[in-house]
Amino acid sequence: MGKYITKRILLMFLTMFVIMTMSFILIKLLPLPAVREMGRDVNLILAKREKMGYNKPILVQYYLFLKNILTEWDWGVGEQMYEGLSVWSIMMQKLPYTVLVNLYSILLAIPLGLSFGIYAALKKNKWQDHMISTLVMVFYSVPSYVYAFLIQYFLCFRLGWFPLQMESMGKAGSLFSWRMFSSMLPAIFSLAFGTVAGLTRYTRAELSEVLTGDYMLLARTKGLTKAQAISRHALRNAMVVIFPMIMGEFIGILGGSLIIESIFGIPGVGSLYITSINVRDYNFFMAMSMFYTFIGLASGIVNDISYGLIDPRIRMGSKK
Length: 320
Hints:
Layout: H1 2-28, H2 41-51, H3 58-72, H4 87-122, H5 127-141, H6 144-158, H7 169-172, H8 178-211, H9 214-221, H10 226-251, H11 258-263, H12 269-279, H13 282-310
């Protein structure tokens, strides 16, 4: 297991290096945005450009870019947005909003998804199973931004239960206040629908297969009730496949949702990424691209490793 984890981590960094190199070269082929007159900040930006070798060949610029990151963890400063401010510090200020919205949505989706999936498996081929399966296919196939528009229209505009946009820190007081949480609920619901549908589908499929196993019949013949056999044996075996999916969702909460954050005005890293693309702020774009790449690759590694941790019979990287 140790060799497998080390190999996956090394491959992850190699993949990140390849993606970073391609992104950097492609960005440098685009025209460099002019620095707007911003008072004293314009001198800082010009100094940063000089430090990063903007007037030098692309390979030299890339070497200086990597050197600044590895030695000083310096991703540059904002040029078209948050002018003159550190890219990394702005990202860290935005990250808590993204984490909270996605964390709340996952904590809401996990019990609902598992409950619906277990219920559908126990009622297999009955009208309850058919109804849940049909709803799952609908909710799973519809993009989250469609739910966002529907929630925004009905719950926010027509009924007035929630604000159309997320409350700012000044109005809501604290990031963990009830007013802030209630303003996040439309975005939380929009993100949770797809996760609930996915968990329901996986739970129903895995548990239905496990319930037909021979060891379940053996457990019943030994005197266990149906509920005991399901809780002690069926669910534990089904979770071998379901739990890695849940772990991947928790790791992925840092990634956020680009479109949902923009729709509901959430000042997270998702909206920051889209804005950096629209205004061509290359420093923010590079930092955000590497951030999302790392989250995606780390989520895949945690997914694979969790299989071996849940089921000791699985040995990652074994030749036998």
